[in-house]
Design goal:
Elements lengths: L3 E5 L2 E5 L5 H6 L24 E4 L6 E2 L10 E3 L3 H16 L15 H8 L23 E3 L9 H9 L5 E4 L6 E4 L15 H5 L5 E3 L3 H9 L4 E6 L20 H11 L3 E4 H22 L5 E2 L4 H10 L13 H17 L6 E7 L3 H5 L16 E4 H10 L21 H4 L6 H15 L17 E8 L2 E9 L4 H13 L8 E5 L17 H17 L9 H11 L5 H7 L12
Parallel strand pairs: 1-5, 10-11, 10-13, 12-17, 13-14, 16-17
Antiparallel strand pairs: 1-2, 3-4, 3-5, 6-9, 7-8, 15-16
Helix pairs in contact: 8-10, 8-14
Length: 582
């Protein structure tokens, strides 16, 4: 490949063709400020803060959308450029509320950071706020259009990355704002609550619905027996809120922090990830051997479930009926654990800590979420919300000791922990499916073909002569292409191209979930993913069917996978939903 040679502030740099000036500058240690650019998205030069000068050009160019050219001489900072950027920031601030102290993004806001860096203390323009109402119609996400800076990231994510089209620009000029299509509420829109809009918003215009007060109130209520579970991806991201590098595995410290917050019992969602594999794996083997509907599609991602019910209800028969690990643990907590601990389930309060905003919707998605006789999971909070709770409690997270969970619903295998990454559910399922089909254990439990950040991954697995074709998709915008392949084969009367499919709504899987710490890029996702696989490699047991506590829960309580009690507590159903509510 012929490299392009240019100069950035007099410093020679060599880049690949197509590299933007904003990324070329990074190679020589120069940060060009921006509010609309994000490495996940195609640049579209909305904010105008990243302007630079290129020798020979009569005007300033936007570095995010300008490709490096041979022999270019680029100036990224001089007094004129700095003044232009400051003026753009002042104009944005003139239409932005000054309630930083009450904002969910205080001290973690890209606009606030730039205003500080540019030393903006006063704004020379008249304040022009629009007094737009807050949309808190969903159980998961809040939209505050008053704080929107029209950077367009959320709309680009929703439309191009996720393929949902719940958000768009409405109005023109100064009246431009982001809102659901047709100007309905978020709850009435096609929104699947994945939260990728909240993860990419640079300010506090769209954010997760904070439920930490509900959790605090439950902990403080003496009659409540409060238990908590943590998802696989939380342990490799929570540290970012406390100065750790992304991907640091902090499971033991998390258990300790949760006890100090006042929970009566600390469980781990990885345990019910193993339980999910036993149910989902048994379901897959039954479909393969008894002629069930194929391909079987995983169902642990609630944003994907919501998408399927709205946009692709023709695949309802393909969906695994196994509940997500979050919901399985809630059901087990209010039945099995309640019996063992002698606790009345009506006095139990189950909290889940998830990397996901859609999990807030899932806790009351349908009537099967009350399989224990009560709402199985009372509230689901995000990684970001838990970080805030730890800080509110004055807990010195960095100096916490490693502690163990309450083992009844916490022991997990390596297969349980890899649920947090794209391909992980598939790999975990294949590890146990091999055993369920052959009654033998794999010598090598690694399925490398389903790992990685490629949007759609396909592989063929040979299980003692049985060829199983699998596919893995992450980031909702990649899924429809996969579904269309299946539809086309069905229309032609051909054999299904796949037997088993895993779908995760968020890029990278749960490690890139909408409730994870802000600022995720593929580099950060890669570190979180590496942390998950490190946790897997260090596990004594690598397969779900080897988890002794899983064996015990079947012996003591559930009976067998897909048995009557397991079906009542651990399985669900689906129904077609309208894309737009009326």
């Amino acid at each position: 490949m012929n490299m392009i040679e240019l100069e950035i502030n007099g410093i020679p740099v060599s880049v690949k063709p197509g590299t933007s000036l904003i990324n070329a500058a990074k190679l020589v240690g120069v940060k060009i400020p921006t509010l609309c650019y994000h490495s996940d998205l195609e640049p579209w030069a909305a904010c105008g803060i990243c302007v630079v000068k290129v020798e020979g050009s009569p005007k300033m160019l936007r570095a995010c959308a300008t490709a490096a050219g041979p022999g270019m001489k680029v100036t990224t900072h001089d007094p004129e450029i700095v003044n232009v950027r400051r003026t753009v920031l002042e104009l944005i601030l003139s239409t932005h509320p000054n309630d930083c102290l009450q904002c969910s993004r205080n001290r973690n806001c890209e606009l606030q950071t730039l205003a500080e860096e540019f030393g903006i203390r006063e704004v020379p323009f008249e304040k022009r706020l629009r007094d737009l109402p807050v949309d808190n119609s969903t159980t998961s996400i809040v939209l505050n259009p008053e704080k929107c800076i029209a950077c367009g990231r959320c709309a680009k994510v929703c439309q191009n990355m996720q393929g949902v089209w719940a958000l768009e620009f409405i109005g023109r000029g100064e009246k431009t704002r982001i809102a659901p299509a047709a100007d309905v509420t978020l709850d009435e829109s096609p929104c699947i609550k994945c939260g990728q809009c909240t993860a990419h918003c640079p300010v506090g215009a769209i954010y997760e619905k904070d439920q930490t007060r509900e959790v605090w109130n439950a902990i403080e209520e003496n009659k409540k027996h409060c238990v908590v579970q943590i998802a696989p991806a939380v342990r490799v991201a929570i540290g970012e809120a406390f100065g750790y590098e992304p991907g640091e595995v902090l499971t033991g410290q998390l258990y300790a922090a949760l006890r100090r917050l006042g929970f009566n019992a600390v469980f781990d969602t990885n345990f019910t990830a193993d339980l999910t594999i036993m149910e989902e794996g048994a379901e897959f083997v039954r479909r393969m051997t008894e002629g069930g509907v194929l391909p079987q599609i995983t169902s642990c991602c609630p944003a994907w479930t919501d998408y399927m019910e709205k946009f692709s209800p023709d695949f309802i028969p393909n969906f695994s009926t196994a509940k997500s690990p979050q919901q399985m643990l809630g059901a087990m907590a209010k039945t099995y654990y309640a019996q063992k601990a002698g606790v009345d389930p009506k006095n139990m309060y189950v909290v889940s800590v998830m990397p996901c905003t859609a999990k807030k919707f899932e806790v009351s998605r349908c009537e099967t979420m009350t399989s224990s006789g009560f709402q199985d999971v009372d509230v689901s909070i995000t990684t970001r919300e838990l970080a805030r709770m730890i800080k509110q409690a004055g807990i010195d997270f960095r100096n916490l000791p490693n502690e163990e969970p309450d083992s009844l619903l916490a022991e997990y295998s390596g297969a349980g922990t890899i649920f947090g990454v794209t391909g992980g559910v598939m790999e975990a399922a294949l590890r146990s499916a091999y055993f369920l089909i052959t009654k033998e254990d794999l010598k090598d439990v690694h399925f490398m073909d389903v790992r990685g950040m490629k949007g759609v991954k396909a592989a063929e697995v040979d299980i003692k002569g049985t060829k199983i074709r699998v596919a893995v998709a992450h980031q909702m915008g990649n899924v429809e292409m996969l579904l269309n392949q299946i539809r086309e084969a069905k229309a032609k009367g051909e054999e299904t191209p796949f037997h088993f499919i895993e779908v995760m709504a968020c890029r990278g899987g749960c490690i890139g979930g909408g409730g994870q710490p802000h600022g995720a890029t593929d580099a950060i996702r890669a570190k979180r993913t590496a942390g998950i696989y490190t946790d897997d490699e260090k596990s004594v047991r690598r397969c779900s069917h080897h988890n002794p506590m899983i064996k015990k829960i079947y012996e003591d309580f559930l009976g067998k996978p897909l048995g009557h009690k397991a079906h009542e507590l651990l399985h669900t159903g689906y129904q077609e939903r309208k894309v737009y509510k009326k």
